[in-house]
TrEMBL record:
Organism the protein comes from: Crocosphaera subtropica (strain ATCC 51142 / BH68) (Cyanothece sp. (strain ATCC 51142))
Superkingdom of origin organism: Bacteria
Pfam family, one: YafQ_toxin
InterPro entries from the UniProt entry: RelE/ParE_toxin, RelE/ParE_toxin_dom_sf, Toxin_YafQ-like
Name of the molecule in the record: Plasmid stabilization system
Amino acid sequence: MTNLILSSSFKRSFKALIKRKPDFKQKIESKLRLLADDPYNPILRTHKLKGKLSGAWACTVEYDCRIVFCFEQNQETLEEEINLIDIGTHDEVY
């Protein structure tokens, strides 16, 4: 299981999204568990991003809800971690 790191921008976007759509909270938490277990699970439709978000990755929560993240290596433990950058609709995160 990969460790998930929540950036301040992700936390802010998550709170705003849950405020607008409270029923999304369980779906998002479920997808985050799945992401931690297997980032390349076909259910997540994980894909590499291009352009201004080059180097980042995204996965799908729902039809129009994405999680943007980066793979990073922890300097102390040398283990791979997932840094969660943003969450929101396609237009909000891209």
